Structure formats: C-alpha cells, structure tokens
Amino acid sequence: MQHELQVVADPDAVAGTAAAFVARLARTCVQSHGRFTFAVSGGHTPWAMFARLAHEHVPWEHVAVFQVDERVAPDGDPDRNLTHLRESLGAAPAEVIAMPVNDTDLDAAAAAYGRSLPGRFDLVHLGLGPDGHTASLVPRDPVLEVSDRLVALTAPYMGHQRMTLTYPALARAQQVLWLITGADKREPLSRLVAGDRSIPAGRVEAAASLVLADAAAGQVPARAGAQPPA
C-alpha cells in the first residue's frame, strides 16, 4: 500500500492537522452519500484530535463512530478506549457503535460486532506501536492470521485481552489516517512507509493511506509521490 507522509512540528500539530482533515472528509462524505463512517483506535493523539474537532464544522448528526479495538474491561474503566472516546466527543451527537466487550460470550459478541460494520469505512484511524503493532494486531498473536472474520479476540497483551478489527475489516477503509508521535515510533514508522510486511502495521491494506507524524517520529524519507493532505 502506498502511504502519503506528512511531518508536522509536534503532537499538538498532528492533532490539529488531523482534525481539519477529518472534518473536511466528513463534510464531503455526508454531502456525497449522506453518512460518514469512521473507525477509531485508542491513544492520546486521537483524543486530542477529537478535542480539536469540537471547534471544526462537522455534521455530527450524520457521523457513525466505530471502534477499531477495545480492551476487555468494565464499562467506564480508564483502560477502555470507549471511556476516552466518549469524554473526547463530549456533547457531539455522533452515533457511537461500541465493541461489546462485556458480553459473556466474547466470540459471539465479536461476530455480532462484525455484522454491524458497514460495507466500507469512509475513514479508519490507526496508530503505531514501538513494536510495529496497530489496532490490537500485535506481533506473534494468532489474530494476525485471522482472515475469515471481521472482528476477533487477541491473546492477553499488556494486561488485557482485546477485541479488534482484523485485516479484512481494515481493508474496507476508503481512507486510513495514521497518527504517529514520539521518537520511539521512528523505526517502526520507517518500516511502515517502506512497506515492510514483517511488522503487523505493514500488512494493512486500504484504498488510500495518509500518515501524519510529528518531527520526533517522522524523520524518515517519504515515499515517492507523497503529498500533504488536500
């Protein structure tokens, strides 16, 4: 997959640039087909992006927000991505379709969430870990080889089992937006933009990919033809 790489000064600039990009795309999609389907990963940078989105013109009533991944933890737990997502959205009237990680039968819950997904996502936000993971697709986890389900469960990772979109689900994205900050991401970012499929993030396929990185992470050469977002 070809990546467009844009490097900005710092995490605050990443959040602001991302918010403007998301708002423009949301308006375009709602005007084009009446709805904006957006899948969101966890992390400090996307929460900062949502805080900036509060100051952008976004047609929230026509926005459906899905989760890319979630920890199996109680509702309201500070480790839950959903907790921070709801806080970041504030009063914005977007529809949030939460991963059902508190169901008794998690395999059935994952299958049900898969059935709730749209045939395509207008936008999927992803992050990048120092180990090259994205979503909850982490190195050496059997979930990396799941190809017959859109949503699956991981082995425990950093204290929690997780529910995650699989590669086939991520491939429904018309646009992927990577938000990558910090010097510890420099090496995996270099591998990502080089198309290194030995890291989990390098196996993501989508129609288009924009990588927004801060200067600490982004001192890597952009691929030929990379352009800043319109």
Question: How is this structure best described in words?
Answer:
The chain has 230 residues and is α/β, with parallel strands linked by helices. It has six helices and ten strands; from the N terminus they run βαβαββαβαβββαβαβ. It has helices at 11-33, 44-53, 81-89, 106-116, 167-170, 186-193, and strands at 4-8, 36-40, 63-67, 69-71, 95-97, 123-126, 151-153, 162-165, 176-180, 209-214. The strands form two sheets. Strands 1-10-9-6-2-3-5 form a seven-stranded parallel beta sheet, with helices on one face. Strands 4-8-7 form a three-stranded antiparallel beta sheet. α6 links the parallel β9 and β10. α1 (11-33) packs across α2 (44-53) and α2 (44-53) packs parallel to α3 (81-89). The chain is globular. The two termini are 19 Å apart. Residues 221-230 have low confidence and may be disordered.
